[in-house]
Predict the structure of UMP-CMP kinase.
Amino acid sequence: MSDTKPVVVFVLGPPGAGKGTQCERIVDTYKFKHLSAGDLLRAERNSGSETAELINGYIKEGKIVPVAITIELIHKAMEAHDGNLFLIDGFPRNADNFDGWAERMGDKVDARFVLFLDCDEETSTQRCLQRAASSGRVDDNVESLKKRHRTYEESTMPVIDLFRKEGMERRVDASESIDAVWEKVKEIFAEAGFTA
Ligand SMILES: Nc1ncnc2c1ncn2[C@@H]1O[C@H](COP(=O)(O)OP(=O)(O)OP(=O)(O)O)[C@@H](O)[C@H]1O
Ligand SMILES: Nc1ccn([C@@H]2O[C@H](COP(=O)(O)O)[C@@H](O)[C@H]2O)c(=O)n1
C-alpha cells in the first residue's frame, strides 16, 4: 500500500451480475487493483489453512463468512499491493461485513462509492449456470444459487440500501450486454473524477 490513504470503490450486486467481468475492464482502464472477496476466500480455502474447512462450508451454503476472516484477507492483499486504488468486489455483503469494515478500516481508507450492478434473479441464475461449465465452482448450481440469492436479498440488499442513504450507491442495469454495462460504468468513473 502507498503512503497516501488508499482509495476504495466497492462493487456489489447479485451472483453472476457481471461484477468480475466489469472489474477486469476497470482494472485495465483505470489501473485499480481488483480484490474479489470471493476469490480471496476460495484461495484461502484451497490453501488448506486452518480456516479452509469452515470457509468451504459457508461457500457451499451460500452464507457469508465471519468478517474477521475476510477482512484479514483483504487487508493482507492491500498491504501487498504497491498502489493506491482498490476495487473491492463482493464486499461488504452483510451487516457483519459492513460493521467490521467500519471498525477496522473505516478511517484508514477513502471509500468513494459503491458500484451496484443490478439484475434480476433469472438473468443472474442463467449466467451462473452457463459459467458453471468452466468455473469449477462448488456453488454454481441451482441449489446453491437459490441459497445465494436468499442471502443476497436478506443480507446484501440492506447494506446496499444503507450506502444509497449515504449517497454512495451508483446503480447500473447489469441485465444489458457487457459492452452496454461498460459504457455506464465508464460514465460513473468519469463523474467520480477517474481518468483512463
Ligand atoms: N452483461 C452481461 N451479459 C451477459 N453475460 C454476462 C454479462 N456480464 C457477465 N456475463 C457472464 O456471466 C457470467 C458471470 O459473470 P461474472 O463472473 O463477472 O459475475 P459476478 O457478478 O462476478 O459473479 P459472482 O458474484 O457469482 O462471482 C460469466 O460467464 C460472464 O461472462
Ligand atoms: N464478502 C464475502 C464475499 C463472498 N463470500 C463467500 O464466497 C461466496 C462466493 O462469492 P462470490 O462473490 O465469488 O460470488 C459467497 O457466496 C460467500 O459464501 C463471503 O462469505 N463474504
The domain at 7-189 is CATH 3.40.50.300 (Rossmann fold). The mean pLDDT is 96. The pocket of adenosine-5'-triphosphate (ligand 1) is lined by residues 13, 15-21, 38, 90, 127-128, 130-131, 174, 177-178, 181 (CB under 6 Å).
